[in-house]
Amino acid sequence: MPDGPLFLFDRTRDANVFLRRAGMALPGSSEIEKYRDILECFGAVSRTAGTGETWGRIASGAAVPDEFTAVGRRDLAAILGRRLFLRSGAAFQMMSLCLDNKLCGRCGAAMEDHDKETARVCPGCGRVVFPSLAPAMIVAVERDGMILLGHNASFPSGRYSVLAGFVEPGETVEDAVIREVYEESRVRIKNILYVGSQPWPFPSSMMLGFRAEWESGEPCADGFELTDVRWFTPYDLPDLPQRISISRMLIDDWLRRVSADAPHG
Ligand SMILES: [Zn+2]
Questions:
Q1: What are the extents of the domains in the chain?
Q2: Is 36 helix (H, G, I), strand (E, B) or coil?
Q3: Which residue of 39, 47, 63, 171 is 20 to 30 Å from 18, comparing CA positions?
Q4: What's the mean pLDDT when you consider all of the chain?
Q5: For 3-14, what is each residue's pLDDT tens digit?
Q6: How far is ligand 1, taken at its centre, from the CA of residue 95, in Å?
């Protein structure tokens, strides 16, 4: 097996990743023996792909060697690039699968890694648990060269983004796009187009990106999730999400199209 990267996670909620201060690089899987006594658990990122990638979780109270520094997972893309950012998310989700399924929720037996699937299996009752993935939609609503952006109560002050929300049981993703936009802004939309997707493992979302056209209604924040929602033009854009996020990609895609449409001179 090739020597893939080793993703060492701390115990914070979003799980920071440890990089070597020298060169800001990930350690390699072949080094796992060296760190075994500071890890509470570890495993392979994928049992099927054979990439040699591994993850480990630093034990409570363990002293992390001074050569490492902890970096937030959202910041990894800027340091390591998009591919390793995505792989760090896969590693995080495999760690979560393991930590959340030590014991079977049905019969209480100790669970094990599945030998063929990316899953945990119960040797007692045969129950198989796959990594959780929560589908969520995100949409750029457009109207005559303007885009609908909202300020979420959890955002830093002054930041706005396109609207997003989780798909509910029984809904199509398109239903969720229409419902969430109406719930959060009282705006009705039409002509929904799929643009692309992005895993967003904070902790387990799969973002499905769309664009849509305004049909009726004036934006009005729900005051609960969003504290403000309004139209912006390319000339008065607020603080936007970071470039690695699909929200920013949707905004940049809109910006490119309205800029191309703008009269020259
Ligand atoms: Zn069981």
A1: 6-100, 103-131, 134-260
A2: helix
A3: 47
A4: 94
A5: 899 999 999 999
A6: 20
